[in-house]
Amino acid sequence: MRELTLLVAACLVLLGVMPAGAQDRIARKEIVVGLAAEPRTMLAVTIVDWTTNTQLEHIYDRLLDRDAKTLKPKPMLATGWKVVNDTTWEFTLRPGVKFHNGEPFTAQSVKATMEYLQDPAHKSHYAAYWKAVKEVQVVNDYTVRFVTDKPWPALIDRVSLTDFLVLPAKALKDLGPEKLAQRPIGTGPFRFVEWKRDERLVMERNPDYWAGPAEISRVTFRFIPEFSARLAALLSGEIDIMKDVPPHVVEAVDRSGRAKVRTAVSSRINYLALVTLKPGPMQDLRVRRAMSHAVDVDELIAKVLQGRAAKICGPLSPANVDYAPVDCSRYDPARAQALFKEAGVDPTKLQLTLDTPSGRYPLDKDVSLAIAAQLQRLGIKVNVVVNEWGTHLDKIKNRTTGDMFFLGWGPAIFGQTVMEPLFKADQTYASYGNNKLVDDKIARAITIVDARGRAAAYAELQKLIHDEAPWVFLWQQHDLYGIANHVEWSPRADEKVWMYDAKILAR
Amino acid sequence: MTRRAIGVGLTLAVIVAALAAPWLAPHDPARADFAHGLRPPGTPGHPLGTDQLGRDLLARVLYGARLALFIGICTVAATAVVGGLLGLVTGFVERWPSAVIMRLADVQLSFPFILLAMTINVIVGLGLRNIILSLSAAGWVVYARVVRGEVLSVKQRDFVHAAAALGAGRARLLFRHVLPNVAPTIIVVASLQFSQFIVAEAAISFLGFGVQPPTPAWGSMLAESRDFLYVAWWLAAFPGAALALTALGVNLLGDSLRDSFDPKLRV
Amino acid sequence: MRVYLLARLAQTLLVVFLSFTAVFGLVRLTGDPVLLFMPTDIQAKDVDEFRQRLGLNDPLALQYLRFLGSALRGDFGESLRYKRPAMGLVLDRLPATLLLAATAVVLTLVLAVPLGIISAVRRDTFVDHAGTLATVLGQAVPGFWLGLMLIYVFSVQLRWLPTGGTGGVSNLVMPSIVLAVFFAARITRLTRSTMLDALGEEFVLTARAKGLGAGRVIGKHALRNAAIPVLTLAGLEVGQLLGGAVITETIFAWPGLGRLTVQALLNRDFPVVLAAVFVTSVIYTLINLIVDLAYGWLDPRVRVA
Hints:
Shape of chain A: globular
Order of helices and strands of chain B: HHHHHHHHH
Shape of chain B: elongated
Strand content of chain B: under 5%
Number of helices of chain A: 17
Structural class of chain A: alpha+beta
Largest sheet of chain A: 11 strands, mixed
Oligomer: heterotrimer
Distance between the termini of chain B: 11 Å
Distance between the termini of chain A: 44 Å
Strand content of chain A: 15-25%
Number of strands of chain B: 0
Radius of gyration of chain A: 25 Å
Structural class of chain B: mainly alpha
Helix content of chain B: over 70%
Helix content of chain A: 25-40%
Largest interface: A-C, 54 and 52 residues
């Protein structure tokens, strides 16, 4: 009996020390976002990592932002831009912006940021992205020029992503990167409060933000690696937003009465690479074209992904600014058979290997198995090899995958980031290459500054690649976000999860 | 004893399920039927329901019994043979090679089991054969230690001294006198390790390294069911129950074996 | 005694050194670490440059010696993923895991050992059978499954406990239970069986014949002898407890060492893996040393001097 009383007392005590519930957060206009991993650093432009940058973007600002709908560049810390000549871009900067420590934002900040990331001593990943920039010229306090060594029309695309978050020049010099990494200082809508490693990152509203203070007073990022625990946290009201709700669970979330699922069509694409960089049946164009007709992408989307994907027909998706429409390869088993026959291949005797990761992309493993089942209808035997993620990348790099592999790529906002790394034989993750025509056209397309010319070049390139059938083109992912009912926030196609846009709905 | 009865009963049930799977299963466990994904138990044609690709769950659970037995027996055999031999030798021969081997065992023991198995799988890849490899590589140490302890104590017994005095050679001593007395321990530990290994398979599947579909293993089915916990409870319930009951059965069997080998406990 | 301690210490160092070397080899065998911490759309030659700068293109033996050299000075290098000192990351996370493990051990001692003793003393009664069922189930149910079930019931449905993270006592409840279950099950069964052994021993029968009370017999005589195998197992298992924490920490978002090690392994962040393994093996061998010394205290026949 005593034990029972003790137990009840203990429970009451435990209940008393429960963390702040959803109701408190609503009253105080606080938001908790559940993420699978923590940021890798608090210093901007050092490490390329979606999770890291998503969180850093609350503390730092980009030079240019992207419009949420059109995904075209729009003013942020820079209010205007123009092309001075083939190798020089000029940006007009926004006056009156201050860093969190009071330091003013000027052209010096931009120059210092570029110098920081280009300095080999800092080992920043971004050095490779900004290699083409020879120098940053300070014209005056609010005008800055980027001088490149070759024409680089995609500079405007790079500068409007998280590839250039602006650091404070004076603080960087006075404190040094290490100290700055512990107490980050930016111009963003939120100020750093604390980072409890592997647990949570907390930031509070910056009342002096140049675009007006955020409605949310406090943002907490909580790191919950196990997906079902994250979902449980959403359903129990511990977190307000989570990303990557799997398609099957959407209904359950919507029915729960605590949260709903909102979709954004992502710029991230998934595809089935048909490997031509090593000897095998995929080196024959007709076999590749046959494969494009043998896989029923619509069925995969409808049945495996529950309709939550947007089919693509070429290497670039509509979310990509360089997109041009191409014809779709329809599901046509008869045509596939004919093409196999033409190539002298008997599908019933064909044995292929498909490498896939597991859990990296939505239902990647299941999609691969489903593709194998579809190919089985033609008699093709497919051995699906599931790889741990690191091993998968290793295999692709070493060209030791099977005849096909499943991969995703993104965010794929502009053409260069898709074309260059994936269709040239000397690139790490390419599955197709050694086509001189394609190499030349890519090299040309990335240097055309004139918008019309660029569009035409990319359109031609997409058609060319579509006809070469290096992949079975699959789809753009749907990013499914679980959002608590009391939060109003719309997800974006470029995967920017930004709490500045979030509002708390009054009960 | 009822304990033994339950243990034997459950173990037999699993063996029967494993052997009779092709006849008992209504469908091919690997056959994907996209149109009928995530159907609940009781759907016509699918008494236990289907998984996300439309594969029949009853078939997968039944064939999973085969995998469970296969994994369990293989890992137990491998670890018992390797660990047992090493234990016998290091217990019997007390010179420096034994010390070295035991230190190596210590080194391995200081490394968490799951982590070691995972590392091995990262290197050699995933799949059924590699799971057995990594679980065995991580699990032999227990045998070595336990058997060594037993050998050390049996070695002191009178009948061994007597046989030695009568001129029996070392090998003969080891295999004809010591081994039979250590054998019961090996058997008991084997039966207890069996259930541990099939549960470990579930743990390693949880970390992403298990047997991959379409091969039906209860552990990896359980791990996969996480994603569907809120919409398809049956994907976790039935493989989980099968796993738990099998482990329960084999454990009880092992318990009763140990009881019967131990004269002091005979009532 | 001193000689014994020194010998054991030397052995400990040997074990730690060997595990360090073995893990270095193993982890470097897992493949190219650079691929995983660089973005995918960087040019191949830039990635190569990075690799070169990190010294990863040098022969493996050279890398090993270099690493060993700096490790002896306490410097385990910089985490490839986080750009922070690897040992610093590990030591940051260690207290959380220790807290979890310690709570699990305490729970086990408080619940499992008494249960084992009672099961032995009241053999074949309801308590015994119920205890057996509980312990066997405890070993048969995978930890992650139990954890997810608990979260579903207590966090989502009942809202009594948080789903994870640290913060208060309520955060510690579910993770330590899940971690303790497997461990406790084994300890209970072992305690039961060694107690049964001890209770059947002649000296116990003698003590009873002498007229000593049951409590005294159990507490002073039987328990002491039963303790040794239990202690052995406990010592062995603690290392595994630190490993089992891997799954518990992942599910309950507990910021511990196990989780860090798994993630580091998956990310091929070998400085962190090495630092973590080093710390774990030091702790493990220290605990075993303590256990061995405790033998001497419990059983005079085994005094280790």
